[in-house]
Amino acid sequence: MYPNKIKTIEDYQNLSKQIKPLIKKHVQNILCVGTDVVMDFPGNTKNQRRWLLNIANEINAYHKLIYINVDNQKCLEHLKIRQLEEPERNNFDTESTFNYLTSFFEEPKELEGLNILEINSND
Description:
The protein has about 120 residues and is mainly α. Helix content is about 45%, strand content about 10%. It is built from 4 helices and 2 strands; from the N terminus they run ααβααβ. Strands 1-2 form a two-stranded parallel ribbon. The N and C termini lie far apart (about 35 Å).
């Protein structure tokens, strides 16, 4: 939606806020006609997951959060590969950005009202 517009974390946050109401309504419309939706949105914090859960709960749709449980070292290895494959992202996809964003991570809990499928990918 925003090619070449996301250069900072603040850019991402601002543009994400703009598009979320449209995405929410669109996803709810698709779910209401009986079609499944897979959303590749961050769910790293309770607030992010609350927004995703609200989309389903408002229309009584089933949901599932797929939590890929992997250690940071493995993520950084994948980041290095992505930097080679997609060099245009290198200004934003850095180890420093990864470490900053990861500092906010909160592991999902069923107490949040989530149906969680955990995939342990540390092997």
